[in-house]
Amino acid sequence: MKLGFNWVLIFVSVIMVVILIGVQIVRIYPLGVEIPADPYQGQPLLPYQSLIKRGSITLDVIGQYKPYSVMIFKNGDRILLVEQFPVTVKITDGDVLELWVLEELPGAALITAKTSENVRLKYSRTSIPLEKGLHRIAKVFVNGMY
Predict the structure, then answer these.
(1) What stretches pass through the bilayer (predicted)?
(2) What does the longest C-alpha to C-alpha distance in the chain come to?
(3) Other CB atoms closer than 10 Å to residue 143's CB: what's the count?
């Protein structure tokens, strides 16, 4: 009777070791993950080459705009105190654009007039009323090289 129980313990311990090895292999070599293509085939990048994706966005206002009443922020840093619209902002992948309205402008709204063809915006609305305070314009996703 004791001999049979030892074989069960050995069998269970072998199964646990196999599962442990299997989990470690799956963690090292994840299944279903696509390895990205390397367009430069391992060569060092030249000074004019970059892997950072860039684009541009043009913002405009509908209605009457008073100069110096709007600031545009990119990733929390002030980049522009707007004197006159339309304004073109150079952006990179992952940027968050925000708008700080210093003076409320009733009847005026900010719109996205134009984006470069490789830019996709998340959280973007068709128009943002220019009410006093901080407003998020969009989060930027750039699809290809600019």
Answers:
(1) 6-26
(2) 93
(3) 13
Cα 109–chain centre separation: 25
Whole-angstrom distance, CA of residue 16 vs CA of residue 13: 5
* Average pLDDT of the chain to the nearest whole number: 86
Whole-angstrom Cα distance, residue 88 to residue 28?
45
Q: Count Cβ atoms within 10 A of the Cβ of residue 137 and give its class: 0-12 exposed, 13-18 middle, 19 or more buried.
A: buried
Residue type, 80: L
Q: What is the pLDDT of residues 86-129, one digit of tens each?
A: 999 999 988 999 999 998 899 999 999 998 888 888 877 788 89
- Which among 86, 87, 100, 94 is positioned nearest to 120, based on CA atoms? 94
Q: What angle do CA 98, 101, 138 make, to 5 degrees?
A: 20
What's the pTM? 0.64
